[in-house]
Hints:
Strand content: 25-35%
Number of helices: 7
Number of strands: 12
CATH superfamily of the largest domain: ATPase, nucleotide binding domain
Largest sheet: 5 strands, mixed
CATH architecture of the largest domain: 2-Layer Sandwich
Shape: globular
Helix content: 25-40%
Strand order of the largest sheet: 3-2-1-4-5
Order of helices and strands: EEEHEHEEHEEEEHHEHEH
Structural class: alpha/beta
CATH topology of the largest domain: Nucleotidyltransferase, domain 5
Distance between the termini: 20 Å
Oligomer: single chain
Amino acid sequence: MVMFNLVVDVGNSKCKIGVFEGRKLADYRVLEKSDLPEIGRVANNFPLKAVIVSSVDENAEEIEQLIGKPGIVKHFHSGDTERVKNRYETPLTLGLDRWAAVIGAGAQFPGRNCLVIDAGTSITYDFLPASGVYTGGSISPGIAMRFSALNHFTGRLPLIEFDQALTTVPEGSNTINAIRNGVLQGTLHEVSGFISQYSGPHDELIVIMTGGDAPFLIANIKNTIFAPRIVHEPYLVLRGLNEVIEL
C-alpha cells in the first residue's frame, strides 16, 4: 500500500495542507483558520505514515487531536536537520516558515548557494550557503504593508489595494499611480539589490522565490541579468516541512 505524509502549516490567517507521496506533492489545500476541522477529513482520506505540524499559534495539540493519529505526529521546531544546520543567534525567535523554506531550499539544491525570498505579508531574505550552515537573513515590509503604511502614517494619501495579477508598474502620472509606482519600484529595487548583494561573493547563486507576491516580482525581474538564477517554488515551505519527516 502506498503511504503518504501529511504536512500542516498554520499561519496568521490561513492554513495550508500538503499531502506528499515521498517528495511528490499529491494534494494541496488552503483553508481559513475557521475551517481547521477539515484537516481531520483530509487525514482520513489518505493512509498516513507521518504527519508534521507547524503553527504560529499555540494550537498544535488541537490540530493533533483533529488528525486523530497521535503516534505519527511531529511538531516542527527550529532545530537542525540532516542537511541544514541552524546557527541563528536566537533560534527560538526564528519564524518557522522561514526555517522550513530554508530546509526546502537545501533539499532541492544541496551543496549550492541559495537565496530564499518569501514575498508575503513581509518579504524575507534568507541565505543558505553551500555548506548548509544557516546564520540568518533579512525581514522587510511586504507590498501590501507598504501601501497600508502610506495611508496610515499620512493625512491624505489613499489606501491602495495591491492587485497580485499586476504584471507591470504604472507610470506615476497621478497620485494613485504615483503611490503604486513608488511602492512597486521600491520593492523591485530592494529585491534586485539583495540578489546583487549575495550574487557578488557567492558563485552560481540560486534565487528561490515563494509567497503570494512572488509572481509579480518574477514577472518584473525576468528581463534583468538575474533572471537565469531565479526559480519559482510556490510550495517551498510545505516541501521543507515534508523533508523533515521524509529523511
